[in-house]
Amino acid sequence: MSAQPTSVSHLNFETWVECDGKALPVYGVEINGTKATCWIASQAGKNFSVQFKMCDRSKRGTFSGYVYVDGTFVIGKVLGTVPPYNHSKCVVDEFRPTPTTKQSLCFSSLKTNDDDAIDDNELLSRIGAIRVEIFRVEVTGYEKRRPKEIPSHMGAQQLTVHEAAKKLGGHRVMLGAPEVTSAGNILRTEKIGSAIVEFEFKYRPQDVLEAQDIIPVTRAQVVAPQAAAEDPARKRPLEPNDTTNTNTERRDKKAKTEPVDVDALVAARARIRELEAQLDVKSGVKTEEIRVSGAFGPGQVIDLTDD
User: Fold this and answer.
1) Of 6, 131, 242, 252, most Cβ neighbours within 10 A?
2) Residue-range domain boundaries for the chain
3) Where is the composition biased (Basic and acidic residues) (predicted)?
């Protein structure tokens, strides 16, 4: 089985999200015009960076990637092939609230409550996505950094949403502790035309993505050694009139695609993993990756860059 892609490429640009120095696998990639979307599994408490680059550097031009996290503009970074702005890759891993302070970007858990009086619609409409918009630009000079207000949903305080919101995610991006840094200047740019390409990484906890059939689930199939030895089906080849496998396939094909109760499914899968871990000690485990049919089947197309 081929390795899971860890980046998305479209219209001569490639973008990915890294945690602990490793690019996160991308799932359910979809391309619609100039926009590419995908899903990634977020891990609460982990810092991350957003990275992007040009694929074919034989094309001349100056570009800027504008990064947004949970609806908040973080920063723009210039790259291209025209000196002195011919950077091959850009990395965004911090938010600069003041010219001399920086704060890392970190995935964080949301607190849930069953209080129906909680008004979390505005919060939920903002969180859950990392976006990169790439424009062709003209560099017009330099300017000093300006202070930026930290939005409430990215602050250090614990955020609470209604229990039902767990089905929509459960994570957000918060900022790390402030660190002192040099002020420096930033490039002043002017956008030329509309965005060339837009990348959107929708992030959720892994168990939520598994429950929604966006990430394939790895399950353990346990076979007792003695039972395997005594199983007649394992001793003889399938006869032409043997319908055992055919019937099994028919039952599999009849599986219905229905909305899932995320909470119940996550709990059930956690219990399955616990039981499988216990059986692993007793009888040995054969691990097989299977994909359950669902409404959110991952896309296979990753790179639609024009030749």
Assistant:
1) 131
2) 8-211, 217-290
3) 248-259
